[in-house]
C-alpha cells in the first residue's frame, strides 16, 4: 500500500497547528538544489531535542553535487513538529575544503546539562575519496556541541587520534585511509550496563584499494564520559561493509544496519553486539531489506501503542528509487509492514520520532534536494 502524500501550505488562514492534531500527512522541501549559496544539498541527518526542537542537518555543496569540494554542514530547525522551519545556518565549515557526513545525537544523560546537549560529529577531507583510498590525503574526525538548542555552537574538537588510525596517528601501522561518520543520526544508550554511552557508527578503508571496495570496513566509536574520551569498536568481518547506522534494541543490544559497497547481495548487512559495540556477536544479510548501493536509516519508534523497529531506504536492487518505510514488530526478525513513501528517484534518508503518534522522514528526492515528511503512526500500521 502506498502512502498518499498531501502537501500542506499555510495559506488563506489555514492554521498549521491543526495539522499537529489531525491525520494529515505534511511534506515540504527543506533544501532545494541551486537555492541559497549552494549548487547541491545532500546527506540528510535529523534529530529532536528534549524540548521538541527538530534539527535537520545536510551538506551544502558549493559548486556541484560531487562528494568532494567546498562542502559545509548546514542546519534548519523547527519548533512545531516540522510544520515551519528556520532559514539554514552553517554549523561546520572547513574553508574551501570538505566538512561532511553529519552525525548528530542528543546527550540527555549528562548531569552537567540537565536540558540536554547536542553533539554533531563530522569529517573533514583534503582530497577526494578516490585519492584518499590511494593514501594521498587525510581524513579527520571532529565534533561540536550546543547547550542552548542550537543558538550557539562550541569550537570543533578534533578526536581523530582516538577514532581513526591514519598517517597522523600513533597507530599508523593500521593504515586506515578513508573515514566517514554514519551518515545519519548517532545514538545514546538508555539501558544498563551501557546507559549514557554515545555511539557513532562509522566506516573506513584500510590499505591499498581492492577490487569491489573490499578494503572498506564498518566499525564505530563511542564515549562513556560525555565526549571527554573515545574508544573504537572492532571492524566488521564482512568484506566491503560501508555506511552504517545504529539502534539500541529493547534488550539493550546494539544493531547496525550497513551498506554493502560491492553490491554483491543487494541486501542490507546486519551486525549485532550484546556488549555495547565492544565486540560483534553476529553478522548476516537481511534478505527482506533489499537495497542498491546506498545509505539507509534505522530507528526504534516507541509509540503510544506499539514499539516498532523502523527502516527507511530505496526499495530496489537496481536504482536509487522507491523510498520505502518498513517496520518490524519483532525487532528485525521479520518486516511485516511496508509502505512506499515516494515511487521516483530517492537516495539517502534519516528517521526521527516526533511524538508517540508521529514519524518524521528526511530524505533525498529527484536529485533536486532534500524533503521532510511527517505522517501519523496510524498511517503506517493501519
Topology:
Blueprint: H1 17-21, E1 26-32, E2 40-48, E3 54-61, E4 71-78, E5 89-93, E6 98-107, E7 117-125, H2 129-133, E8 139-146, E9 157-158, H3 160-163, E10 176-181, E11 187-188, E12 198-206, E13 216-223, E14 231-232, E15 241-248, E16 254-260, E17 267-273, E18 282-290, E19 297-302, E20 307-314, E21 321-328, E22 337-355, E23 358-365, E24 369-376, H4 377-381
How would the global form be characterised?
A: globular
Briefly, what CATH class?
Mainly Beta
The count of strands amounts to 24
Please list the strands of the largest sheet in the order they lie side by side: 1-24-23-22-21-20-19
Terminal-residue CA separation? 10 Å
* Share of residues in strands: over 45%
Rg, Å, rounded: 19 Å
Q: Give me the secondary-structure category.
A: mainly beta
- Low-pLDDT residue spans: 1-15
Kindly report the CATH topology: Neuraminidase
Helix segment count? 4
* Helical residues, percent: under 10%
Number of domains: 1
Q: Describe the largest sheet.
A: 7 strands, antiparallel
CATH architecture: 6 Propeller
Encode the helix/strand succession as letters: HEEEEEEEHEEHEEEEEEEEEEEEEEEH
What descriptors fit this protein?
382 residues, mainly beta, Neuraminidase, 5-stranded antiparallel sheet, 4 helices, 24 strands, disordered N terminus
Question: What would your notes on this structure say?
Answer:
This protein is mainly β. The chain has one domain: Neuraminidase (6 Propeller), CATH 2.120.10.10. The protein has helices spanning 17-21, 129-133, 160-163, 377-381, and strands spanning 26-32, 40-48, 54-61, 71-78, 89-93, 98-107, 117-125, 139-146, 157-158, 176-181, 187-188, 198-206, 216-223, 231-232, 241-248, 254-260, 267-273, 282-290, 297-302, 307-314, 321-328, 337-355, 358-365, 369-376. A hairpin with a 7-residue loop joins strand 13 and strand 14 (231-232). It is globular. The model is unreliable at 1-15 (pLDDT under 50).
Amino acid at each position: 500500500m502506498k502512502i498518499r502524500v498531501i502537501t500542506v501550505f499555510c495559506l488563506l488562514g489555514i492554521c498549521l497547528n491543526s495539522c499537529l492534531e489531525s491525520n494529515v500527512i505534511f511534506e515540504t522541501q527543506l533544501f532545494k538544489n541551486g537555492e541559497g549559496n549552494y549548487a547541491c544539498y545532500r546527506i540528510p541527518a535529523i534529530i529532536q531535542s528534549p524540548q521538541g526542537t527538530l534539527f535537520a542537518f545536510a551538506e551544502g555543496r558549493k559548486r556541484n553535487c560531487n562528494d568532494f569540494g567546498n562542502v559545509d554542514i548546514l542546519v534548519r530547525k523547527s519548533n512545531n513538529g516540522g510544520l515551519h522551519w528556520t532559514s539554514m545556518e552553517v554549523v561546520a565549515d572547513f574553508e574551501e575544503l570538505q566538512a561532511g557526513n553529519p552525525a548528530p545525537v542528543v546527550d540527555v544523560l549528562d548531569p552537567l546539562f540537565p536540558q540536554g546537549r547536542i553533539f554533531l560529529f563530522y569529517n573533514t577531507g583534503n582530497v577526494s575519496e578516490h585519492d584518499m583510498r590511494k593514501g594521498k590525503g587525510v581524513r579527520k574526525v571532529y565534533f561540536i556541541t550546543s547547550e542552548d538548542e542550537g543558538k550557539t555552537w562550541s569550537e570543533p574538537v578534533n578526536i581523530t587520534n582516538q577514532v581513526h588510525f591514519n598517517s597522523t596517528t600513533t597507530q599508523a601501522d593500521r593504515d586506515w585511509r578513508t573515514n566517514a561518520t554514519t551518515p545519519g543520526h548517532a545514538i545514546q544508550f538508555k539501558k544498563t550496563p551501557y546507559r549514557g554511552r554515545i555511539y557513532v557508527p562509522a566506516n573506513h578503508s584500510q590499505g591499498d584499494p581492492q577490487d569491489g571496495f573490499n578494503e572498506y570496513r564498518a566499525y564505530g566509536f563511542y564515549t562513556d564520559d560525555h565526549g571527554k574520551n573515545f574508544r573504537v569498536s572492532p571492524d566488521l568481518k564482512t568484506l566491503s561493509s560501508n555506511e552504517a547506522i545504529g539502534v539500541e534494541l529493547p534488550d539493550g543490544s546494539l544493531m547496525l544496519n550497513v551498506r554493502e559497497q560491492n553490491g554483491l547481495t543487494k541486501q542490507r548487512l546486519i551486525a549485532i553486539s550484546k556488549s555495547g559495540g565492544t565486540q560483534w556477536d553476529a553478522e548476516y544479510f537481511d534478505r527482506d531489506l533489499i537495497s542498491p548501493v546506498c545509505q539507509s536509516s534505522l530507528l526504534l519508534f516507541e509509540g503510544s501503542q506499539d514499539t516498532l523497529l523502523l527502516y527507511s531506504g530505496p526499495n530496489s536492487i537496481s536504482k536509487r528509487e522507491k523510498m520505502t518505510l518498513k517496520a518490524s514488530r519483532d525487532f528485525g526478525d521479520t518486516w511485516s509492514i511496508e509502505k512506499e513513501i515516494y515511487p521516483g528517484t530517492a537516495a539517502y534518508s534519516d528517521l526521527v520520532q516526533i511524538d508517540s503518534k508521529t514519524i518524521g522522514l528526511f530524505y533525498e528526492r529527484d536529485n533536486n534536494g532534500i524533503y521532510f515528511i511527517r505522517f501519523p503512526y496510524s498511517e503506517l500500521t493501519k
